[in-house]
Design brief:
The complex is a heterodimer of chains A (about 475) and B (about 475). Chain A folds into two domains: about 100 residues, no CATH class; about 280 residues, no CATH class. With about 475 residues, chain A is an all-alpha fold. In chain A, α3 runs antiparallel to α4. In chain A, strands 1-2 form a two-stranded antiparallel ribbon. Chain B is globular and about 60 Å long. Chain B folds into three domains: about 120 residues, Rossmann fold (3-Layer(aba) Sandwich), CATH 3.40.50.720; about 120 residues, 3-Layer(aba) Sandwich (Rossmann fold), CATH 3.40.50.720; about 120 residues, Alpha-Beta Plaits (2-Layer Sandwich), CATH 3.30.70.1450. In chain B, α6 crosses α9. A six-stranded parallel beta sheet of chain B has the order 3-2-1-4-5-6, sandwiched between helices.
Chain lengths: ~475, ~475
Amino acid sequence: MDALLPVANVLGRLLSVFSLAYLMPIVAAIHYNDGTTPDFVAAMVICLGAGLILYAVTRANYRELKPRDGFLLVSAVWALMAAIATIPLLLVYDNMSFTDAFFETMSGLTTTGSTIMTDLDHAPPAVNLWRHELNWLGGMGIIVLAVAVLPLLGVGGMQLYKAETPGPMKDAKLTARIADTAKALWLVYFLITLACIGLLKWAGLSWLDAICHAFAALGLGGFSTRDASVGAFDNPLVEFILIVFMIIAAMNFATHFVALRGRRLSAYWHDVEARGVIALIVSSCFGVALYVWLEGTYEDYLTALRHVSFNLVSMATDCGFASQDFDKWPVFAPLWMLFLSCITASSGSTGGGIKMIRTLILAKQANRELTRLVHPAVVNPVKVGGNPIPNSVVIAVLGFIFLYFMSVVMLTFLLILSGLDFMTALGAVVASINNAGPGLNKVGPATNYAILTDFQTWVCSFTMLLGRLEVLSLAVVFTPQFWRK
Amino acid sequence: MKIIILGAGQVGTSVAESLVSEANDITVVDNNAERLNILQERLDLRVVPGNAASPSVLDAAGAVDADLLIAVTQSDQTNLCACRVAKSLFNVPQRIARLRAADYQEYPELLDDKNFAVDYAICPEQIVTDYLRKLIEFPEALQVLEFTDGLVTMIAVTAFEGGPLAGKPLKTLPERLPNIDIRVAAIFRRDQAISPTGDTLIESGDEVFIIAATAHIREVMTELRRMDKPIRRVIIAGGGNIGLRLAKAIERSVGVKLIERDRARSERLAAELTHSLVLRGESTDEALLDSESVEETDMFLALTNDDEDNIMSASLAKQMGARRTLALINRKSYVDLVQSAGRIDIAISPAQTSIGKLLARVRRGDVAAVHSLRRGAAEALELVAHGDAKHCKVIGRSIDDIDLPAGASIAAIVRNTGQTRTEYKDMIGYEVPIHEVIMAHHDTVIRDGDHVIVFCTSKKLVGKVEKLFQVGWGYF
């Protein structure tokens, strides 16, 4: 238990910094004069106050954190930030429960993008901006979590295998220090976001919509300012721009950094994950569009391709925008999209799920076992991008996958026990653990999570956090040996 | 000529053997005194024990008045360092180094006089690999040798009962290959060379050396041997330097199974190779060969460092039904033993194969290539004719008039036509000269600048042939 107080000290400092995030909605509230200015100012003061008090009280306990404290820290950061971010929502909407508000902010910070709020079209601009800012900040946190923090804790597929590999991959070590790496990646994230805002404005969106959707696309959050999500604009150009930026956000930001710094596109070719993402998405888009068109959902193939591309990319990258009610498509299509949401996004991106690198390692491990049956004497290490992966990493990935699927199965059972039908329960759990957003059936793209009971809402909130922290880093906090000295 | 050879390993020993018989003054340096003693007992040369790269040892070896330094130790670093020392301290005019790592060859500026001062770098493993590759390309050949940068190829094949060669006189060959000019350079019958004439009948078991333009060689092969199917599947036993290089070179076009006994090495092989199947085990393990269906293998190559292992595994593979077997064998006596017994189709001495290029540098006159044939018993030379009719004994004369020693014959000539191709100039920066390949006939006249390919059935003739091509004193 001696880890709690030093971690609380760091949390206090982080909360104080987090209070700056309220500045953006406050500016929006003043600009649009939507009457929420006092609520956001109050929220900012509470956040700053809480942070400073927490910091002051635990100041005596300050010490350098040990790597092990990191598990507690990242779990607590996400939970506490989500809790504190509910304040403006609770102040603006008198009838909103803490359960629902927490679900909404957790969905924002974990970049899931499921919402329990209705009538978004008429929500105060400041509230919409706040939700989307959470998406964007969540994405920022994830990048650092993935490239800097998780590798230190020994979780996450990415740096684990890159640390030992020679060849083109060594570019992945960007700068010598974690702080510099984080700054470099944030700069890339920021620049790409600016580009996205500019293009969306050019394509015809208002400034508010452009900023909000760019935030949601880069964080792969998938919140929208409309109940009908991106479908409300019915603008192919907007959809195309978002597809491009969702795919960009689903690639490793370290690769973007290398490509930008060296001004060479070959960085993407050297990144095996980027190749896998593109190949999987492109082939799935054309294939599913063909299927949906043959099943007669759309009149012509091009329309089918347009709608399938947008919604499939959105689901596969774990973003969660929707332009059509794809739950009404023949059942293969939404299930395939849900499957893609599990495996597509790269490590070091803002997407969720198993991540492409683990998918590749698993596929090659399976192939290796098959080869071994035919050639018992064979020596064939698992190789990704031409570099052999140590067996210890392969075993760690297998362990992760087991925990991941057991989590999906158990949480689905839990939701079924609580009274949901199978499709809704499965859809909600998979969409939450992958931080994708819309699920199936009652929580599909045309409806939202407002129909869930309080208990089910909490289960989904927990699932989102579990998926965001790559299962292991949250699960370890619940084990007895973590707390034992 | 005073020559210092650094390293008394396989390559160093073979180089010493080849040069010692040509009246050179040879000193061999190695840090293994025992190896040097064995060498000294066998050959007439001087030995100096010690570190080959150290100035004092080189001094003791007589580097001050040496004409040539051949650094062929196992270590690239020692070889490079020795060349630098020989250049800086002793000003040895010519320095040849063995470099195994491909890295060095990628940066030629490293080898110039300002840096490591290596005049000529050879990589024996690469030469052997290239050679094996050619044998896979022409699976029925015993030897495939290239001259004049690959324009002319000489192949050796064995005639067999019922085949297209055996039992027929030589002069019927042109009838079967009407549009192709080929020459039979020599025939070896029961290890004795016979001079081929038009009426010579080829017997089963004869080794026939045929020379033709490389562009035609596939057609020639098709006609001479029943090339029923090309090589599709190979098993390589031994993942050493050569095994790995060969697997890397062919794995994209041929199915490769690579057997390696060492655990760590096999893991490294598996990491480096992308399409090959790496198997851990003994190449002499019958059960392993059986489970990897050796009987469906087109070629089995035993490439370990161990002669006995190579002989045993290749013989075993042959018995189990491999279509063609090949073994690397260092010991000369073994080579003749296994090949004459017929248990192994092709026996290759890696040292003999790889030192040809090196020997070409050492020989006097304008020798462009030397290929050792039949494990060093015979040689094929590529010489450049220089001068005019007054000063040179070959230029301006037809082949009949040239006073070649008995047992040596001119097989082919490659002539610069004086014309050039311009279409690649933008890419490579110069115009490519066009060469024509002329098969030697009795009335062919040799001109200045011709590359002449001479076949010597015995090594003793080499010196005489070289002397013939040397320009008389008055010319310069």
